[in-house]
Structure formats: C-alpha cells, structure tokens
C-alpha cells in the first residue's frame, strides 16, 4: 500500500510537468561585437593611447581640481544617487529575507486558559472535572520545508540577481550624473570664455563707432555708417545677453546636479582647458564592453533573474514536502507543568501536490518564460545600442577633432593677418578701421574655435560614458 501511494505521487508529478517542458524554450543571447576595425583605423588611433581601461574617478583625466570637486559633491549629495543606494540596500535585505527559507522556523509560545463549563457541558462530557479550571501550555514549534526541487534556492538566486542588478544600476546612475556634471561644467566654461571674447568685440565696435563719429564730424562718413555701427553694437549686446542667460541656466542646472540650491550663485573660475584629452583605448573593446557598461551588466542580471523565475515556476509543479513538529509542556495545574507527566509533542510531516489548478501553473510558467525572452531581447537590443554608441562617439570625436585642427589653422591665419595689418597701420599704410576689423575677425575665429573645442571635449565625455566610465564588474 505504501509503495502504491508513492508510485501514484510520482506519476501525477510527471504528468503535471509534461506541459512545463514545452515552455522552457530559450532564445539566443548575442555575443560581443568586434569593434577593432573602428578603433584601429589610422585616422582614429592618434586620438587615443593604448592602455588599460579608465581607472576610478575617470573625470580626473581632465586635470581640473574645480571639476573634480564638483563631481565628488554631486556623487555625495545628489538625491538620485542616494535613492539608488537605498534601492541597493533594499534589494540586499530582500535577498536576506528570502535566504531565511533555507532554515527551519522555530517559534515558542506560552498559553494560559481560564475556563468555566456550563452545567450541560460539564455534566454530560466531563462530569469528573471541576467546572472551573485553568490550563497552562508551554511549547516550541518547528517548521521546515524540504527544498528537494531547488525552488527556494532559485528564489534566493533570483533575489541575489536583483540585488546585483540594483548595484549595477547604482553605478549607471553615478555615470549618468558625473557625465552630466562634466558636460555642463564645460558648457559653462565655454560660455565664460565666449563672454570675454564677445566683450572684446563689443569694445572693438565701440572704437569703430568713435572713429565713425570723428569721420562724420569731418564730413567723411555720413549718418548711414553711424547707424549701421550702432545697429551692430545693439545686436552684439543682444548676443551678450543671450550668452549671459545661457550661463545662468547652465549654472542653475549645475547647482541642481550637485544637489545645491539652483537659485544660488556658485563661484566659478575660468579654466580654459579645452585641449584634446587622450583616453586609453583597450584592444579588446568589444569584449571588454560586456563587463564595463553598467547598464549591460544590469540587464545581464535581469536575464539571470528571469531565468531563475522560470525555474521557480517549474518547481511549482512538484510536491511541497514540509515537516512540522510541536513539543512542550501542558497541565491544568501550574505546579505540575514542569514535570515529566506534562510533556507533550506531535510530529506532522505533509506532502502537498497540485493536481488541478485551472491552468494557473501553466499560465504562470508561460508568463515567466515570456518575461525571460523579453529580458534576453532587451539585452540583445541594448548590446547593439551600446556598440553603436561607441562607434558613433568615435566618429563624432574624429570629425570634431578635424574641425578643431582646421579652425586652429584659421585662427593662426587670422592672427598673422592682424599682425600684418598692425604693421601696415604703424607705418600709415592701413587705417585704424582696417586694424579694428582685422582684430574682430581674429576674435570671431577664436569664438568658433572655443565652440568646436567644447563640443570635442563633450564628445570625449560621451565616449567615456558609452564605454561605461570606470565601471568594472
């Protein structure tokens, strides 16, 4: 009889799991992409240095103490980073909570009961018992679930995957914040440098206006030239106002990023560091990208979590085996509670097997498999996006560096032209007006160079972001 019951349980378990095997089809996970063709291009190699991946505090490659201080303040005080840290702690504690399923539950209790039986119940059921009595009970309860099918282990591994995913997302939040701070810092630096140059142009136009006034007094120029210069000065003042407004917006955004009051002014020094910063480029960029991008690592752990959830859903088809034991002391007389005669105990092993659930288990399994496939597809998509971001950032950096090179040549030519005009002016060959115009052309070329250098610096920052910063799994 015992063996026939055992055979019946095993048979029903096999039948109930027949459909679950059909739902465990897996989808292909993409491997890394080979990006060496892009990084080893002769037109690109000179932009990088060969070496290991960026170390911790990647922003220190710009050698700017003011910038480093701002980034460190942001990573310490920004609410989004604090929220990410709290999520990591929550996930860690959730995994510890699930881990408790590996151990038996032991609980103790003490019960006292005062009772009075009515005459009907006392006389018919317990005539020999005093109708007024008091019951005392002291017990320990032991409850343990046997994890024969690895269900609890998979639940724990799924929780650990979530904790590791949250840890990777915390670094992703730090990477997004730090790159935003650096980009906004260089935008602000660029605006400050442009303000100085624009002020020089405005001073230049004011001198031109003085000359026009003088020429107008001597009837060389007329009112047309005066009004034209005045109109250009007003346009420059308007442009200065726009740049100043951009500076105020950049400053408030930078204050918000570092977690301070956006309405407060923050002292900022003009550094003027827009030189090309060469970052180390590893040879196996495609392979390294898999373990260096925190968002990719987070997605990998999401896939891992989804796969464990599928295992849990499969384990739900199998029987649950529990053992509950209860032992303690019980007596109607408190003085006799702690005696051998007061000992009591019970043992309750149990096996529960889902036989008919209305399709709930199959639906749950299919749902978990679909979630796993979705996570894999999302990972494959993110891997393609990540590789594309690196390639695009390298192309943008290459283009901007070429533009900066050409613009530097243009600035040099404008500078030489100004020097020639100045020499001609000293000997009375050219006029002051020609000198002022040449000086303005020189300043305008420097303005464009600042814009291009700022964009090039931000493209380096974006490339660092696309490569995962200094993250390492």
Low-pLDDT segments, ≥5 res? 1-25
Range of strand content: 5-15%
Number of strands: 6
Structural class: alpha+beta
Spatial order of the strands in the main sheet? 2-3-5-6
Q: Give me the CATH superfamily of the largest domain.
A: Outer membrane efflux proteins (OEP)
How many domains comprise the coordinates?
2
CATH architecture of the largest domain, by name, is Up-down Bundle
Rg result: 38 Å
Mean pLDDT: 81
Shape: elongated
The CATH topology assignment of the largest domain is: Outer membrane efflux proteins (OEP)
Q: What does the secondary structure layout of this molecule look like, with pairings?
A:
Blueprint: H1 2-16, H2 36-39, H3 42-45, E1 48-50, H4 65-77, H5 79-99, E2 105-116, H6 119-124, E3 132-146, H7 151-217, H8 223-257, E4 279-281, H9 285-292, H10 294-315, E5 320-331, E6 343-352, H11 360-426, H12 432-466
Helix pairs in contact: 4-7, 5-7, 7-8, 7-10, 7-12, 10-11, 11-12
């Amino acid at each position: 009889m015992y063996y026939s019951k055992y055979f019946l349980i095993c048979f029903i378990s096999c039948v109930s799991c027949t459909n679950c095997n059909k739902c465990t089809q897996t989808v292909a996970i993409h491997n890394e992409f080979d990006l060496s063709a892009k990084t080893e291009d002769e037109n690109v190699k000179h932009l990088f240095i060969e070496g290991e991946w960026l170390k911790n505090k990647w922003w220190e490659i710009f050698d700017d103490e003011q910038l480093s201080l701002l980034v460190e303040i942001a990573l310490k005080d920004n609410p989004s980073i604090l929220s990410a840290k709290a999520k990591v702690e929550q996930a860690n504690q959730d995994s510890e909570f699930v881990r408790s399923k590996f151990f038996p539950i032991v609980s103790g209790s003490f019960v006292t009961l005062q009772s009075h039986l009515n005459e009907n119940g006392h006389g018919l059921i317990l005539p020999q018992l005093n109708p007024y009595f008091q019951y005392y009970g002291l017990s320990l309860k032991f409850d343990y679930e046997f994890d024969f099918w690895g269900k609890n282990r998979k639940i724990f591994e799924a929780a650990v995957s979530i904790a590791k995913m949250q840890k990777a997302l915390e670094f992703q939040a730090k990477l997004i914040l730090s790159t935003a701070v650096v980009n906004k810092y260089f935008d602000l630096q660029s605006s400050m440098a442009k303000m100085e140059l624009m002020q020089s142009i405005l001073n230049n136009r004011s001198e031109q206006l003085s000359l026009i006034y003088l020429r107008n007094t001597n009837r060389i120029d007329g009112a047309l030239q005066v009004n034209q210069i005045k109109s250009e000065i007003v346009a420059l003042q308007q442009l200065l106002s726009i740049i100043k407004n951009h500076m105020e917006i950049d400053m408030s955004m930078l204050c918000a990023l570092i977690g301070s009051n956006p309405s407060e002014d923050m002292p900022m020094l003009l550094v003027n560091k827009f030189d090309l910063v060469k970052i180390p480029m590893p040879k196996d960029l495609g392979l390294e990208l898999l373990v260096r991008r925190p968002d990719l690592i987070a997605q990998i752990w999401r896939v891992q979590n989804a796969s464990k959830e599928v295992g849990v859903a499969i384990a739900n088809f199998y029987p649950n085996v529990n053992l509950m034991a209860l032992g303690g002391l019980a007596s109607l007389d408190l003085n006799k509670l702690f005696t051998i005669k007061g000992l009591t105990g019970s043992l309750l092993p149990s096996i529960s097997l889902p036989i008919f659930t209305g399709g709930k288990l199959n639906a749950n399994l299919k749902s978990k498999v679909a979630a796993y496939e979705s996570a894999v597809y999302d990972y494959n998509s993110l891997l393609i996006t990540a590789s594309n971001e690196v390639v695009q950032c390298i192309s943008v950096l290459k283009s901007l560096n070429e533009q900066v090179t050409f613009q530097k040549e243009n600035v040099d030519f404008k500078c030489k032209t100004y020097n020639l005009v100045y020499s001609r002016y000293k000997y009375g060959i050219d006029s002051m007006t020609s000198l002022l115009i040449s000086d303005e052309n020189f300043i305008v070329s420097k303005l464009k160079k600042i814009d291009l250098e700022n964009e090039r610096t931000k493209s380096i920052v974006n490339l660092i972001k696309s490569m995962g910063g200094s993250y390492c799994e």
